[in-house]
Design brief:
Helix content: 10-25%
Distance between the termini: 45 Å
Radius of gyration: 22 Å
Number of strands: 21
Strand content: 15-25%
Structural class: alpha/beta
CATH topology of the largest domain: Rossmann fold
Number of helices: 11
CATH class of the largest domain: Alpha Beta
Oligomer: single chain
CATH architecture of the largest domain: 3-Layer(aba) Sandwich
Largest sheet: 7 strands, antiparallel
Amino acid sequence: MNISRIHPYLLALLAVIIQSTAFSSELREFAGKQYQRHNDVWVVRTAVGEVFRLDPQVVTVKFKADVSRAAQAQLHAAADAEVLRTARTGFMDVRVSGDLFAALQRYQDSGLVASVEPNTLGQYHAVPDDTEYAQQWYPAVIQAEQAWDSNAGGPAVVIAVLDSGTEYNHSDLGNGADAYENVWLNPAEDAWSDPADPDTGNGVDDDNNGFIDDWKGWNFGDGDNDGSGTFFHGTAVAGVVAAKTNNANGVAGIGGGFGDPGLRIMIAGVGNNAPNGGVLDDAILYAAENGAQVIQLSLSVGQSNAIDAALQMAYEDFNVLIVCSSGNGGGGAVGYPSSNPFVMAVGATDQTDSRAGFSQFGTDLEIAAPGTAIRTTSLGNGYTTTSGTSFSSPIISAVAGLMWVQNSTLTNQQVRELLYQSTDQVGGYDYNHDASRPGHSLELGYGRINVVTALANAGDGEVFLSDGFEDAP
């Protein structure tokens, strides 16, 4: 049995177990959040009912601005802790020994830190479906085929896929018989002598960005330059964005080009079987600093101040549009980080153009895209049919990329606003439930994306931000 493929279900089962037991085991409160221990595993339950395990070895710390490096080092030594990495936002990941909560309390009691928090191990938003389908149904629904006549993507726009890794040698993503690829190659890093082997780099950090031989991105989950992954999820998400189109092979990505290079996929692994909240902020900043216009997230983790800071920096300082799936719990609130104000929350529609039953929704949902029976790339140079908001979100990321190909002068806020105005209000829902946000529904946000409308809205170079839509932060 391939455990990696059923991991999301194990997390769901853990949630059921937690809900059905009385928790005679330990309860802890820290910084306003409650944690529970079940079978020696510490977990946190979110406001929307998701349950995430804590990383028992790593905490994230941010010191107050006036604390000297010497005082920081002294506290780390007293806590028997090792600094693993420090983000531009000032948050640092620290490996601790012994009891997790004792370490958290030591940092908090020192009076030197502005923030200290545990990290969570989250889940990817996939609902795997083993049924094989002969064709992709959704491009026609969102009018992608008509849009491809004028714009099928281009290599100047980079979409960072922060996920379980992407099979960069898949013939429908990387180099195949068509002799081109839609995988981002770090232009400042020396190429591997064997493009299929990350161990054949020159062993030098050529661009001095702190990552050695990151020619095809970086695996933050494992801390190395092999982002190929062993869980299908990241490869499936990447295929929705940029599987090569019109290349006589496999499936068509929304931004896959048309017999020539399309949108570039920047690979950033954030954990194979589960997304690691402790490295997600590093991956966000890596993507922003290396020129990604869109950060694509199909996951949820526990809320983190470090992740919040990275999202804000990427959005405000780097003009990155951040897109995230809403979650698959079916409840009336989106998960995290899709609930963050700097993130665009995406829900799923089904083949009847209604909200998919698993798709989380509510006031924070901004837009929707097809998310059931999605045919896409998979491991082993293969293909799979799968469902989930995980595969709705990359449709929106790809459309945003097409909009930037159409008009490179747009800001992330303008793209976000124009996406609101590029939807079909399907499903028969109430799109005027809130007088302050006309056109917004709880079930599908501003509606299901229409690619032709999005390109028309982006193409004239003039953007009018309507007071009728919720302003981006």
